[in-house]
Structures are given as structure tokens and as C-alpha cells.
Amino acid sequence: MKAPDPRLSKALASWRDWGLPLTAPPVVRTMIPGGLTNRNFRLRAPGLGEDLVLRLGHPEPERLGIDRGLEFEVMNVTDAAGLSRPVWHWDGDAGVAVFPWIDARSWADADFSDPVQRQRLWPLIEAMGELRLAGPRRRYLDYLDRYWAQIVSHGLADDRLSEDWQSFRPRLAEFDRADWQASLVHHDLIPSNVLDTGERLILIDWEYAAMGHPAIDRWTLDRSWVQDDWIDEMMRWINRLWSLLVEL
């Protein structure tokens, strides 16, 4: 028999703190597949009349550059704009979030390749670009410097990678100093983070969102839409270093 998951058990035991009209403890129906850094569960919610989604975030969010406070702010702003789902319970310290269950399918790679589907998604990207947060724009150098320090401390940087990084880093600093207009950027706009109800699209998993360079989400959707080779190079570095860290 599989041993109980202590984080899941603790999260479920906190159900009275969720502020929802539950009449009994919620019960896991199934684990929702997918997710490299989060685990998601569909819950039966006695007394509520609908199911819930319980998300257990990565236990070390700072290691991956995740700011739970900023994430919560972004989710509320995007929910108000009709781009995402509402948050019904939030415990940033524990990495626990509760959402309503939405009868929708997650997009696949084929959806990103489908011109019709991309045209459905494009208005959400444009609407996101109109949103503003109170804080400063992301400093990508600081962000990747934190990644790099961890990679070095864990002995993951060979000579070739170190040489490449030292060549890339000054140009990243120059990019941060450049005068470009920031907008809200998802920074992880992959197919599985798009839910499709058939009538509307909903963006989820805003852990990496911040005020950033507006070309990044367009690059993620279709690299041919971004003519600036620099965005391609920077995003390859971000993904390369993140991939090393997520395996730790």
C-alpha cells in the first residue's frame, strides 16, 4: 500500500480554513496529470455542489524564482480581467491553493500549431499586455544570476557552460538597462497552461508571471512572430538553466 502523502494530508486537513461551505472533509477523486513543479488533485467537495482543484506548489519556490506573493497578486488581477480562474483559498507559505473545478481540457502541442486555436489565444495575450502591476519590471539578470549561483553550488556548471554564461551575462545586463516598455508576461505559456472549455480559454499557473518583456509570450506561442533574435537567445538560457534546477 502506498504511504500517505504528508503534504497532501496536511492540506486536506486544513479544509475548515478554506472559507468554503463544506459540510465534511474533501476527498481526492483523482490526481490531475501533468505539471513539472506542481501537483494537482480533483476533489469531491461535500456540501459545495461542485468539485474543487487542490494545487500543491513546489516546496522550494524560491529556488525556481517563484514569488508566491506576486503570484497571488497576478492571479487576482488576471481573474478580474477574465483571463484566469478565481482563487478560492490561498496559503502561500504552505504552497497550497484551491480553485473551482472547471470542465475543460488542457491544450496540447497540436493546439499551439493550429492557426485557428492560436487566433483564439491571441486576444488573451493582447489583454494581458494591457495589465499593469504596481512593482518594478523583472530584472532578468538578477533572476538568472540566482539560477546560476545555485547551478554552480551544486556542481552542475561544466567549463563549456561557464564560458557560455560569462559571454552571455554582459549582454543580459545591457538588455536590462535598455528602455523597453514592460507589460504583464506569463513567462510559462505552454499548452498545458491553457484550459479550453469549448467556449472560452483560461490561463493557469502564473508562478513565473511578472512585469516583463512583452515579446516573450508571443515567442512561446510562435517564434516566427518575434523577429528579435535576442528574445530567442534569452529564453533558451532561461529554459536551459531552469531545466538544470528543476531536477535537483
From TrEMBL:
InterPro entries: Aminoglycoside_PTrfase, CcrZ_PhaseVar_Mediator, Kinase-like_dom_sf. Pfam families: APH. Residues 32-231 form the Aminoglycoside phosphotransferase domain. Signal peptide: none annotated. This is Aminoglycoside phosphotransferase domain-containing protein. It comes from Wenzhouxiangella marina.
